[in-house]
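Protein 1 of 2
SEQ + STRUCT:
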Amino acid sequence: MCKKSLLSTLFLLTIMFASANCDNTYSSVSYVLSHTKKSMSSNNFEHQKYYATRALEALEKTQKLAKTCGCEPAMEAIFDGLDNLEKAIEQDDWDMGRHYTKKALENTQDVINQLDLFTQNNQDEINDSDSFPVETSPEATALQLELEKIKQKQLQLAEEQKKLLQRRKTIEDEIATIASY
């Protein structure tokens, strides 16, 4: 029994450590988001490049933190964001710089969504590992079933949010294409 408790505690500590690393990743990606938004709102080409450079540096830090956090699903959006920020900085045209910065902003929002999903799944694992097989009353069982339904609904809503963000991106791209004519 003591080994079982020790293993449970070790498992929880491991997950909590990953969660703490994800908190650092959240902080870093929030910084990226802030600088990317500043770059988008800049009406000066030099300021646009400056904030895109700051966002790029912060996203590189975020990449390292996401690896230690273990959030692999966010890595693709991070790579895309790095690529788009590098392109935004390299541009000689203000409009093209804004175009790539806008794409990087979408990538950054996707990183945040992926972190949300990842930490939610980890929290579910923590909650699942906290429950030890004990006899429960019918009321407790009913409440547990209701809790499980709520968790499932949260996951469904997170997926719907992801789809809506993708749809939003598609519509914004279509608007940008139409506006460029």
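Protein 2 of 2
SEQ + STRUCT:
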Amino acid sequence: MKAAEGFPSGLCAQHRAIEALLRQLDGVRTRNGTSDEEDLRLLAALRRLLLPHLAAEEEHLYPLARRCLPVGRALADAAGCTHASIRRLLDRADDCRLSVTGRRRATAVLLLVLRAHLRGEEEQLFPALRARARPDELRRCERRLREPRAGPPGATGSAGPAGPTGPTARGRPPGAGAITALRDRLTGHDSTGQHSP
């Protein structure tokens, strides 16, 4: 039962590493005279950590949520959309064609969306799975999450198994709609990922 109680310890450890990088990015954005290269270095490190993490969640964690939780399908669909948004924001934040100001604005939105997503998983999804999924299902999922992936994560624009669209209103974490609206306003994209005129 202990393995079930600790679920998902691997993902939680990855969340701590992601949060440490986000704090470093916060520091870069608040210090005057910090080089642009530092921004790009931290964003590259975030990409290396984050993309395999998102892909593993899509492959193992969210299918478990779909099977075990009453609103699991809606949660998984919402997470797929959020993951796609995070990938797009990451691409925009380290786009060297943008001005430093434009990239830092995109980074600020990325940090906001990513922190809300991590908090929603830790405060809502993980406890719900620990309460409702069988211990053997949690242990099997934990093992699969820890297995090294056979190849590189999917394309940065991929939304994963949930796809970019779907019924996402029910079961979304609190504030998800406001975060989406704020992200779209700051990045100039509408909710489908298309650039607004």
